[in-house]
Write a structure and sequence with these properties.
The protein is α+β, with helices and mostly antiparallel strands. It has helices at residues 11-34, 70-103, and strands at residues 36-41, 46-51, 56-61. It comes from Nocardioides baekrokdamisoli.
Length: 117
Amino acid sequence: MTENPFGGLDMNALMQQAQQMQQQLAEAQQRLNAATVEGTSLGGAVTVTVNGVGELTDVKLGDQFVGATAEDLEDLAAGIVVAYRDAKAKADDLASQSLGPLAGGFDAPGSPFQLGL
């Protein structure tokens, strides 16, 4: 009878578990890519949409910017940045909620299994 060189570890079971986790992670990432969140600023005059991984997908501007002055356009530019940051923070929260349980500590700093999220 040969002895298991890995002690009491069942390497086949570990490999199956790793494959299941990999598939669950891939599915969660697909859901994140399909998800969208919005961020707003200037009282709703600026709305940006990002996908679940934080990529900008849309910008909507209120009618008040038609025929805007240079000062209004500076406010608009700042408002777009604020709205993007709002949406990106929401996307980051969504990613943490979706992928956090699957990471199971693999994303710890210095871990060889870092996900880079």
